[in-house]
Amino acid sequence: MAEKKAYGTVLIKAKAILDYMMSQDTGLTLKEISEGIQAPKSTTLKILTTMGEQNIIWRNDDTKQYFFGTELIGYGQRALADFDISRIALPFLKKLRDKTEETVHLGIEQNNKVVYLQKLESPQSINLKSRIGGKLNLYSSAMGKAILASKTPEELDEYFSKETLKPVTDYTIISISELNKQIAAVKENGYSIDDKENQPEVVCVGAVLQKNGQVYGAFSVSTPDYRLGDHRRDQIIQYVLETKKEIEQAL
Question: Alpha-carbon distance 78 to 24, whole Å?
Answer without folding.
Answer: 23
